[in-house]
């Protein structure tokens, strides 16, 4: 199956980057189809206005609902379709996790709505919920100027899980947060040269003793997780 990804933003150029590296390869081999759209193409005034002052007062500007509604009509359609997943990256969203990425990797169509200014008129999200499957997703508790960078992060997390995308699917199995990895952080990695600037690769990794190597790696993962992410150990 081919996944279709649409991006709605006043900075569609952010998504040019999807033509390069692994994601570019996925585009080339037909696994994904990417379309970035300029929200201002659905405005009708000379200044291509997409924002206005917040009702009820407050600082900054809010994105007007009209351009979003017309963009939805043009890009997705006017008939409800729960098979379309619409994602609003937002700091007030539910935390985006690897399991959410796993679920989204089986979806045929995803539309990212990237806010700017203080955010999008809430009626846009409410309308979208009447039409499609909506996800308001947060990447973490920090502030960005818009949803574009978050949309790129979510895209990478999702697309790399599409069957046939990664050359070596085994490499997915051992990663942090992979299913069956009991939510442990990944152990430290080493490669040649064995000695580098006075630092040597841990001997056990050069022993060829697979049982001891697996034991060392598990211990390192447990120590690292306990130290950095006690929240994952409960
Ligand atoms: C107007 O700002 C946004 O639309 C916006 C989207 C996101 C996502 C963040 C990370 O969870 S911070 C942020 N700001």
Automatic annotation (TrEMBL):
For the protein in the UniProt heading, the enzyme class is transferase
Task: Return the Pfam families for the record.
Answer: tRNA_m1G_MT
- The record lists S-adenosyl-L-methionine as bound by 115, 139-144
Q: What is its main location?
A: cytoplasm
Q: What does the entry list under GO cellular component?
A: cytosol
The superkingdom of the source organism is Bacteria
| Domain tRNA methyltransferase TRMD/TRM10-type per the UniProt entry, residue ranges | 3-233
Its EC number is 2.1.1.228
Per its record, what are the GO molecular function terms? tRNA (guanine(37)-N1)-methyltransferase activity
Q: Which UniProt keywords apply?
A: Cytoplasm, Methyltransferase, S-adenosyl-L-methionine, Transferase, tRNA processing
Q: Which InterPro entries match?
A: Alpha/beta_knot_MTases (IPR029028), tRNA_m1G_MeTrfase_C_sf (IPR023148), tRNA_m1G_MeTrfase_TrmD (IPR002649), tRNA_m1G_MTases_N (IPR029026), tRNA_MeTrfase_TRMD/TRM10 (IPR016009)
Has UniProt tagged this entry with the keyword Methyltransferase? yes
Q: An example of a Gene Ontology BP annotation on this entry?
A: tRNA N1-guanine methylation
Write down the chemical reaction(s) this protein catalyses: guanosine(37) in tRNA + S-adenosyl-L-methionine = N(1)-methylguanosine(37) in tRNA + S-adenosyl-L-homocysteine + H(+)
Q: What family classification does the UniProt entry report for this protein?
A: Belongs to the RNA methyltransferase TrmD family.
Describe, as the record does, how this protein assembles with itself and its partners: Homodimer.
Q: What is known about what this protein does?
A: Specifically methylates guanosine-37 in various tRNAs.
Q: What is this protein called?
A: tRNA (guanine-N(1)-)-methyltransferase
Query: Which source organism does the UniProt entry give?
Result: Cutibacterium avidum ATCC 25577
Q: Which lineage? A: Bacteria, Bacillati, Actinomycetota, Actinomycetes, Propionibacteriales
């Amino acid at each position: 199956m081919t996944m279709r990804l649409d991006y709605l933003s006043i900075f569609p150029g952010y998504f040019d980057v999807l033509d390069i590296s692994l994601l570019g390869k996925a585009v080339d081999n037909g696994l994904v189809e990417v379309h970035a759209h300029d929200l201002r193409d659905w405005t009708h005034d000379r200044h291509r206005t997409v924002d206005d002052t917040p009702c009820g007062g407050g600082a900054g500007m809010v994105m007007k609902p009209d351009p979003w509604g017309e963009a939805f009509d043009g890009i997705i359609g006017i008939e409800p379709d729960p098979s379309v997943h619409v994602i609003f990256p937002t700091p007030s969203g539910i935390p985006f996790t690897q399991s959410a990425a796993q679920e989204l990797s089986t979806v045929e169509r995803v539309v990212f709505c990237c806010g700017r200014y203080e955010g999008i008129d809430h009626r846009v999200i409410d309308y979208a919920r009447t039409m499609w499957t909506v996800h308001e997703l947060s990447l973490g508790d920090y502030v960005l100027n818009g949803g574009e960078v978050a949309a790129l992060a979510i895209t990478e997390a999702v697309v790399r899980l599409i069957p046939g995308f990664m050359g070596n699917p085994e490499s997915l199995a051992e990663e942090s947060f992979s299913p069956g990895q009991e939510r442990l952080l990944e152990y430290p990695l080493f490669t040649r040269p064995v000695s580098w600037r006075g630092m040597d690769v841990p001997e056990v990794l050069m022993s060829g003793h697979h049982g001891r190597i697996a034991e060392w790696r598990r211990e390192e993962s447990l120590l690292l997780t306990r130290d950095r992410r006690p929240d994952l150990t409960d």
